[in-house]
């Protein structure tokens, strides 16, 4: 069931100003403030939307919001710009009515953003498809391009539109977009050459310098530094929250989507660069011999680069800046330009070049987005144009902008009244004339063909003789002096002679939105908008692809001596065309208001909002809308909303909706003069009547809510009780089942036990008859067999890991299994050791055999042994065969070297060591000099009788030689090595494997004798608490017969 909602539901303040009670300017502003403080930025005046700029992002523009407002009645939901866009689109699609959406407001009020929201909503709700999506994308992407070239940062707005834009979006009969046409009005081209303090030039200049690649800037002969260009203001070059580089990439992408070719984009950028270069051209005065002053260009570098960009001969453009040719019939007069005239010519060329480029961009976009089909199209127009402007200093631009707003206000009042009148006639309600201020008299003051201000300005510009702003003001003072909306201090109307708020060089017009003071300075020049013909012809001679299109009047073959139309005449014609276009369409209005001048969120300035509300004519709008009936609603939704107020219509009315409404209003005793019945709607005259209905409905809804709560709570309690009752039955059934199952299992178990006892007794009785003598032994054997079987099966699951060091073994279950249990443990350990050894390679076996032999020799005998267990036996520590230093020594040894290391040979005289190379082969031990590699001694293994070592942690060992052997002449060798364990182990293994030698004895003792030639010396090892040289071992001679070796106790 669809839930019916209304604008009146959960309303903050008053959502529609037509319903505001009491109606005054103060209550109007207070209602706006109240809604703004609650983030309600949209408010209605009938079908007009007031939009407050929040200056921050709000979560009210999501795709979900688009779907929420899609195909909904305008007053069904809270005020929103989507409601107006949906109303316009639905009328266009379903009723075949061309629509226009007029967006007005001052700079910074959010007009451009509002137009984007309207276009994005229409794009979201219309049809889909590849071609349709392409058209929608092109229409949406035209905005970034036009914003870059037509928007600028002002003191009021960081992205202010400096031109008026009207876009006609064309749709087919299904409501799918086919294309569009854009019209632009009055680009503020004076901004190109001069910007007010705190403002910037058009965005595209800063975007190009910030976002273009270095290569592109090099081609355009530009530099990234803004300060190098006279046309760019520096005090506001950087804007917070505005990324010019990223925006430049967005614009390039948008131009590509719209349909610009790459060479066209490059041509456009070249013209933008040319404008920047043009602003850097400066002039200096130069006197001629005839006494006249002329101008010359100071630095021609910028002129040269500009000419290269545009393909113009430098001399041609230089002459155009210095001379002016005036043609009259067949005569040509050439005059020189002084410095001020040259600067005027330069700025005029810059303004015309940029404004014509902008017009070309609009035309080029129109070529891309125009509808291709020739059939009749439905049209929705979106007008985003400057609002009424009242500044401290108002000039020609403000004058024609305010003229445009006067015309828009005129058509707004006319169309609003016409719409009201048509609805009254359509509904059969009597129409009463509504009194309102008709601003046609102000429009006539400005646009009258004979006595209008624009006509007199054109006449003054065209007449021969000296023409100045003062002569123009004199003419106004003469012709318009008696007009009730024109004020001037110098006019014939004497009442303004003493008005000091009105300067002599100004005039004042009383617009519909208030009085505006205009300064006449610059009116004539800005209206003339004159570009010297020499400059036009110079630009036409350019080889650049765009320049000839932008300056067609420069063609020498088509010289037109007729004066071009003035700016005021062109704008008046454009406004006239726009008004005729809007007259043919159904209007929809968005009035944009900015809440403060600080561009900050959550700030509402009463005076500023009041000022905007006045010049937008919002109070006038409310009064016109309320002049007849303040509220009207179709019978069906009216009856649906208020039917609960009458017992005869609640809850269902079976008859026609109108009769139900009549019964309802009669039952509520609403005075008949407060409402009227139309053909399809009820019209309510006073908002108080509507609020009376709403208050009665609110009270009734509270009563209904209480009733619904009571019924719901009763239903909920009954449902809960029934659920508990049903659950109790289920639980009871399951419990009974469980209890019976448990009882059955217990009986069954008892029966089985009884059966087993009975069968056992019966079997035993039968068995005793036949096997009484052997029964005990057989039972015993069977029991033992079962125990053994269970034991072996248990070992299978509890056997420890295959690691030889794992000493775990399961406990025996019975004492009589002691022997078997121990033997099985031994066999298992031997088996897993064998399995472990079978995994070794030959090299690993040799290493472990050496380690095992070292363990047998030294374990628990020498303190040094434990530290050597983790150290692998490397053997050749010196890499004799690879080291070129020992090449001579390697060649001197014939056998394979089993061990090579550096040892210290102990001198008996002082106990100090001398480094020697110790080599062990299969047949001999060799000692050689460490430095030279010369062999000092070679002892065959059979000549060794034993090796003596201490029990301490030292590395001393003595090689004892057999008496009478050839090697024993020089005596025994007392040596010291860091690899003592490895050396002794390898000596022991090598001696044991040699066929011609006996087993080598290893003597481990802390005191032994060493034969040094003819003398025997005792070597004694003692433990010292602390040594001077740290923890190292020291050897000292005590006397001729004793060497004492001190070993650290901690070692």
TrEMBL record:
Region (Actin-binding): 575-597
Intracellular or extracellular location(s): Cytoplasm, Cell cortex
Residues given in the record as ATP binding sites: 105-112
GO BP, one annotated term: actin filament-based movement
GO cellular component: brush border; cell cortex; microvillus; myosin complex; plasma membrane
UniProt xrefs under PROSITE patterns: IQ, MYOSIN_MOTOR, TH1
InterPro entries assigned: IQ_motif_EF-hand-BS, Kinesin_motor_dom_sf, Myosin_head_motor_dom-like, Myosin_TH1, MYSc_Myo1, P-loop_NTPase
The keyword Transcription regulation appears for this protein: no
Similarity section: Belongs to the TRAFAC class myosin-kinesin ATPase superfamily. Myosin family.
Source species: Labrus bergylta (ballan wrasse)
GO molecular function, one term: actin filament binding
Domain TH1: 862-1049
Keyword ATP-binding in record: yes
Name of the protein: Unconventional myosin-Ib
Source organism phylogeny: Eukaryota, Metazoa, Chordata, Craniata, Vertebrata
Keywords: Actin-binding, ATP-binding, Calmodulin-binding, Isopeptide bond, Motor protein, Myosin, Nucleotide-binding, Phosphoprotein, Repeat, Ubl conjugation
Domain Myosin motor: 12-698
Function: Motor protein that may participate in process critical to neuronal development and function such as cell migration, neurite outgrowth and vesicular transport.
């Amino acid at each position: 069931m669809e839930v019916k909602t209304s604008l009146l539901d959960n309303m903050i303040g008053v959502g529609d100003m037509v319903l505001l009670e009491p109606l005054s300017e103060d209550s109007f502003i207070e209602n706006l403030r109240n809604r703004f403080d609650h983030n309600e930025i949209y408010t209605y005046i009938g079908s007009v939307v007031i939009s407050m700029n929040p200056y921050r992002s709000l979560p009210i523009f999501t795709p979900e919001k688009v779907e929420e407002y899609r195909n909904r009645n305008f007053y069904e939901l809270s005020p929103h710009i989507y409601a107006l866009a949906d109303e316009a689109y639905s009328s266009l699609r379903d009723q075949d009515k061309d629509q226009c959406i007029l967006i007005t407001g001052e700079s910074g009020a959010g007009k451009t953003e509002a137009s984007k929201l309207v276009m994005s909503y229409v794009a979201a709700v219309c049809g889909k498809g590849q071609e349709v999506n392409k058209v929608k994308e092109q229409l949406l992407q035209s905005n970034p391009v036009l914003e870059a070239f037509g928007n600028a940062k002002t003191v009021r707005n960081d992205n202010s539109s400096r031109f008026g834009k009207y876009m006609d979006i064309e749709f087919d009969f299904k409501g799918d977009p086919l294309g569009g046409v854009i019209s632009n009005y009055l680009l503020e081209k004076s901004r190109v050459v001069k910007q007010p303090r705190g403002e910037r030039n058009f965005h595209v200049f800063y975007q190009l310098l910030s976002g273009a690649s270095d290569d592109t800037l090099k081609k355009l002969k530009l530099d990234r530094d803004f300060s190098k260009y006279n046309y760019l203001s520096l005090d506001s070059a950087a804007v917070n929250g505005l990324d010019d580089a990223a925006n430049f990439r967005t614009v390039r992408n948008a131009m590509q989507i719209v349909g610009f070719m790459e060479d066209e984009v490059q041509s456009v950028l070249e013209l933008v660069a040319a404008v920047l270069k043009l602003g850097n051209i400066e002039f200096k005065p130069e006197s001629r011999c005839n006494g006249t002053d002329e101008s010359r260009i100071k630095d021609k570098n910028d002129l040269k680069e500009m000419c290269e960009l545009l393909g113009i001969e430098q001399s041609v453009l230089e002459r155009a800046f210095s001379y002016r040719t005036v043609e009259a019939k067949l005569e040509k007069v050439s005059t020189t330009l002084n410095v001020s005239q040259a600067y005027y010519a330069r700025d005029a060329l810059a303004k015309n070049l940029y404004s014509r480029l902008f017009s070309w961009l609009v035309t080029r976009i129109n070529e891309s987005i125009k509808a291709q089909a020739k059939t009749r199209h439905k049209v929705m127009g979106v007008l985003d144009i400057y609002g009424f402007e009242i500044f401290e200093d108002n000039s020609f631009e403000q004058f024609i902008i305010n003229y445009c707003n006067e015309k828009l206000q005129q058509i707004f009042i006319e169309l609003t009244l016409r719409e009201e009148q048509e609805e009254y006639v359509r509904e059969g309600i009597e129409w009463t004339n509504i009194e309102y201020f008709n601003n046609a008299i102000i429009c006539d003051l400005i646009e009258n063909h004979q006595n209008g201000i624009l006509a007199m300005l054109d006449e003054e510009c065209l007449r021969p003789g000296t023409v100045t702003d003062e002569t123009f003001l004199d003419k106004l003072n003469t012709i318009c002096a008696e007009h009730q909306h024109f004020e001037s201090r110098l006019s014939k109307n004497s009442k303004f002679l003493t008005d000091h708020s009105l300067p002599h060089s100004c005039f004042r017009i009383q617009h519909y939105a208030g009085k505006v003071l205009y300064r006449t300075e610059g009116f004539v020049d800005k209206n003339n908008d004159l570009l010297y013909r020499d400059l036009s012809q110079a630009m036409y001679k350019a080889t650049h692809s765009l320049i000839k299109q932008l300056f067609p009047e420069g063609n020498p073959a088509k010289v037109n001596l007729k004066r071009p139309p003035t700016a005021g005449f062109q704008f008046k014609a454009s406004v006239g065309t726009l008004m005729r276009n809007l007259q043919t369409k159904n209007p929809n209005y968005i009035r944009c208001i900015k809440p403060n001048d600080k561009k900050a969120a959550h700030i509402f300035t009463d005076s500023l909002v009041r000022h905007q509300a006045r010049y937008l004519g919002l109070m006038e709008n409310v009064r016109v809308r309320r002049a007849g009936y303040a509220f009207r609603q179709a019978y069906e939704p009216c009856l649906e909303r208020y039917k609960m107020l009458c017992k005869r219509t609640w809850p269902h009315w079976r008859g026609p909706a109108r009769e139900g409404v009549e019964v309802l209003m009669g039952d509520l005793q609403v005075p008949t003069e407060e409402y009227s019945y139309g053909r399809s709607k009820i019209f309510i005259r006073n908002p108080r009547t509507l609020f009376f209905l709403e208050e009665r409905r609110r009270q009734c809804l509270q009563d209904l809510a209480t009733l619904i709560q009571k019924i719901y709570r009763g239903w909920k309690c009954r449902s809960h009780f029934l659920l508990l009752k049903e659950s109790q039955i289920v639980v009871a059934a399951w419990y009974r089942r469980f209890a019976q199952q448990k009882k059955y299992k217990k009986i069954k178990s008892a029966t089985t036990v009884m059966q087993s006892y009975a069968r056992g007794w019966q079997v035993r009785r039968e068995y005793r008859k036949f096997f009484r003598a052997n029964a005990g032994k057989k039972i015993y054997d069977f029991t033992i067999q079962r125990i053994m079987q269970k034991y072996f099966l248990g070992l299978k699951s509890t056997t420890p890991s295959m690691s030889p060091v794992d000493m775990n073994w399961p406990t025996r279950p019975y004492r009589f299994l002691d022997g078997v249990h121990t033997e099985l443990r031994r066999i298992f350990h031997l088996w897993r050791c064998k399995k472990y050894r079978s995994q070794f390679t030959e090299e690993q076996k040799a290493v472990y055999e050496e380690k095992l032999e070292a363990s047998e020799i030294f374990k628990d005998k020498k303190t040094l042994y434990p530290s050597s267990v983790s150290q692998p036996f490397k053997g050749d520590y010196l890499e004799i065969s690879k080291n070129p230093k020992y090449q001579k020594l390697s060649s001197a040894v014939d056998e394979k070297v089993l061990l090579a290391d550096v040892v210290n040979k102990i001198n008996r005289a002082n106990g100090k060591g001398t480094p020697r190379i110790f080599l062990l082969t299969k047949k001999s031990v060799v000692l050689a000099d460490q430095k030279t590699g010369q062999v000092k001694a070679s002892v065959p293994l059979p000549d060794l009788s034993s090796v003596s070592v201490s029990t301490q942690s030292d590395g001393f060992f003595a090689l004892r030689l057999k008496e009478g052997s050839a090697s024993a002449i020089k005596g025994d060798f007392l040596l010291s090595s860091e690899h003592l364990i490895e050396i002794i182990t390898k000596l022991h293994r090598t001696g044991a494997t040699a066929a011609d030698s006996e087993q080598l004895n290893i003597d481990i003792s802390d005191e032994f004798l060493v034969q040094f030639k003819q003398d025997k010396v005792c070597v004694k090892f003692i433990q010292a608490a602390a040594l001077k040289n740290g923890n190292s071992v020291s050897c000292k001679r005590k006397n001729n017969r004793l060497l004492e070796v001190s070993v650290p106790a901690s070692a």
